[in-house]
Amino acid sequence: MEVTIEQALDFIYKNTIKKATKILPMEQALGFIMAEDISATHNLPPYDNSAMDGYAVKISDASKCVEVTDTIFAGDNSKAVLKNGCGIKIMTGAKIPEGTEAIVPREDTTECGDGVVLPDSLSEGRHIRHCGEDIKKGEILLHKGERLGAHQITLLASQGISHIKVYKQPRVAIFASGSELKMHFESVVDSYQLYNTNAPALKARCEELGCEVDFIGTAKDSLEELQEHLESALNSDLIITSGGVSVGDADYTKEAFGSFGMETYFDKVQIKPGKPTTFGRINKTMVLNLPGNPLAASVNFELFGQSIILAMSGANEKYLNTIDAKMAEEFKLRAGRRTLLPGYFDGSKFTPSKNFAPGMVKPLSEANSYIMISEECSLIKEGDIVKILPIRFAFNSNEQNSLVSP
Ligand SMILES: Nc1nc2c(c(=O)[nH]1)N[C@H]1C(S)=C(S)[C@@H](COP(=O)(O)OP(=O)(O)OC[C@H]3O[C@@H](n4cnc5c(N)ncnc54)[C@H](O)[C@@H]3O)O[C@H]1N2
Ligand code: MOO
After folding, report:
1. Ligand 1: which of 246, 267, 299 to mutate, most ligand atoms within 8 Å of CB?
2. Which residues are CB-contacts of 57 (< 8 A; sequence separation ≥ 6)?
3. 37 three-class SS
4. Where exactly are the transmembrane stretches of this chain (predicted)?
5. Quick one: 95 and 6 in the same domain?
6. In angstroms, what is the span from residue 293 Cα to ligand 1's centroid?
7. What is the spatial distance between Cα 18 and Cα 303, in angstroms, rounded to a whole number?
8. Between the chain's N and C termini, which has fewer beta carbons within 10 Å?
9. What is the atom index within ligand 2 of the atom nearest the CA of 300?
C-alpha cells in the first residue's frame, strides 16, 4: 500500500509498542528514559547557608566595629549564636548561625582590633542561600517519559537516589542485502563489488539514539540467505534492513519477510528519495525495510526509523520537530513528490548539500539536518523560511564568534 508521509508516521505511532521497564543504578542511567516520577526527598539547599566567605552580622551593626566571636567552616555543626554588636566569621557553604540577618563578604570589611568594621549599609538576607530555594521537598523533580541527561542525573544525585525505574533500550537488529556488498573488514573487493556502508551507518545511528544493536551483517541476494539473516534477527524489537525492496529480479526482501508472516502496514511512501520504504511487523518485532541507495536509506531512517525508536523508547517527546531557518541560497527542484533535502544549518541559515543523489554517501557526512519540501514546490528562494529537521546539532563553528546576546 502506498501512503503519504503523514499516514506512514501515523502507522508507526499507532502500531509501535512501548518497551518494558527495568531498575538501573543511577550511574548507568545516562540516556535512558524515566519510567516513574521522582519526587524530592530533601530540600536543596538542605540548610540556610552562606554564599560568601565573610561575616554573619546583624543589620543594626552597619558601619560599626564588631567583635568576631567564632569561625564556622562548611561541614561544621556549629551551635554558635550571633549576638548584637558581634560578627561570626563564616565560609561559603557553611550553615549560618542562629540570629544571622546578613552575610558581609570579607573584602567589604576592614580590620579593627579583634574585630572588623562593617559597611555603612546592610540589607536583610544578603548573601544567604535559603533552605529549599532550589528544590523543595515533595516537589516532582523528574517526570515519567523524561530522558536522563547529565543535568537530570544531577537531580538524582542531589536527592541521594541510587536506583531508578527506566524503560529498556530498544533492541535493534540490522542487516543489509546485496550480492555486490562486502563487509568493511574484508580486504578483497573486486571491480564489481563495494563495501556495505548502510549497515554500519544504521548501527552507529541507532546507538546514537540509545538503542542496543545486533549487527547481523550482509545477506546475498537470495531468498535463503535473507531468511537465514532474518531468523537471527527475530528476537529483537525492531529489524532494520536496507536493499532489495525495489522491483529488480534479485529483490527478495518482500518475499523473505513475507515468508515469516510479516504484516505490512505500508510498502511505498510518497517521498523522494525512499519511495520503496516498507514498515510492518512479525509478531512483536517491528520491521523497517529501507531502500539500498545509501542516502535514501539514511534520510528515511532519520524520518521513519527514528520515529519508531522514539515511539518504542517511552519518551514523552516522541515526535520529530523543526526549527525555522532562512534559506542561504536559491534551490530549484521538480515538483510532484515530497522531497527530503539534506544540508547544513549554521545556526541561522540552511545551505542545501551540493552534488547529492540517492546513491551517494558523502552528502550526509557533511550535512547536519534536512528539510522536507512540499510536493507543490519547485523553487525555494534565498531568504525564504524553511523548517529544519536536525540530524546532528552541536552549535560549534570553524570560526570563533561572539557568544554574547545583546
Ligand atoms: N524499475 C525500477 N527500478 C528502480 C526503482 C523503481 O521504482 N523502478 N526504484 C529505484 C529506487 S528509488 C531505489 S531507492 C532503488 C531501491 O532499490 P533496492 O532497495 O532494491 O536496493 P538495491 O537494488 O539493493 O540497491 C540500490 C543501490 O544501493 C547500493 N547499495 C545497496 N545496499 C547497500 C549497502 N548496504 N551499502 C552501500 N550501498 C548499497 C547498491 O549497490 C545499489 O547501487 O531501486 C531503484 N530502482
Ligand atoms: O527513492 Mo530511491 O530511495 O530515490 O533512491
Report:
1. 246
2. 66, 82, 87, 100, 101, 102, 103, 104, 118, 122
3. coil
4. none
5. no
6. 5
7. 18
8. C
9. 3
Confirm if 240 and 172 have CB atoms less than 8 A apart.
yes
Number of domains in the chain: 4
186 in the same domain as 119: no
Same domain, 27 and 163: yes
What's the one-letter identity of residue 360?
M
Same domain, 163 and 258: no
**Is residue 400 one of the residues assigned to a domain?**
no
The pTM is what?
0.93
Instruction: Determine the atom of ligand 2 nearest the C-alpha atom of 296.
Output: 3
Maximum alpha-carbon separation in the chain: 98
With respect to residue 200, please indicate whether it lies within any of the assigned structural domains. yes
- What is the structure's pLDDT at 271? 96
pLDDT tens digits in sequence order for the chain, 406 residues long: 899 999 999 999 999 999 999 999 999 999 999 999 999 999 999 999 999 999 999 999 999 999 999 999 999 999 999 999 999 999 999 999 999 999 999 999 999 988 999 999 999 999 999 999 999 999 999 999 999 999 999 999 999 999 999 999 999 999 999 999 999 999 878 999 999 999 999 999 999 999 999 999 999 999 999 999 999 999 999 999 999 998 888 899 999 999 999 999 999 999 999 999 999 999 999 999 999 999 999 999 999 999 999 999 999 999 999 999 999 999 999 999 999 999 999 989 999 999 899 999 999 999 999 999 999 999 999 999 999 999 987 666 667 777 788 8
User: CB-based contacts of 374: which residues, under 8 Å, 6+ apart?
Assistant: 338
Q: Which of 290, 313, 336 is the last residue of a domain?
A: 313
364 assigned to some structural domain = yes
Q: Any idea which residue has 523553487 for its cell?
A: 379
In the β-sheet with 115-117, what is the strand arrangement from edge to edge? 102-105, 54-57, 86-90, 65-72, 115-117, 110-112
Residues 332 and 269 in one domain: no
Do 161 and 89 reside in the same domain of the chain?
A: no
CB of 242 sitting under 6 A from ligand 1 = yes
SS3 155: helix
Nearest-angstrom CA–CA distance, 117 and 115: 7
Rounded to two decimals, the ipTM of the complex is 0.97
Measure the CA–CA gap between 207 and 186, rounded to whole angstroms. Answer: 23
In a domain, 198, yes or no: yes
Residue for grid cell 536583610: 124
Give me the domain span that covers residue 151.
21-41+144-167
Q: Which CATH number does the domain housing residue 151 bear?
A: 3.90.105.10
13 grid coordinates: 505511532
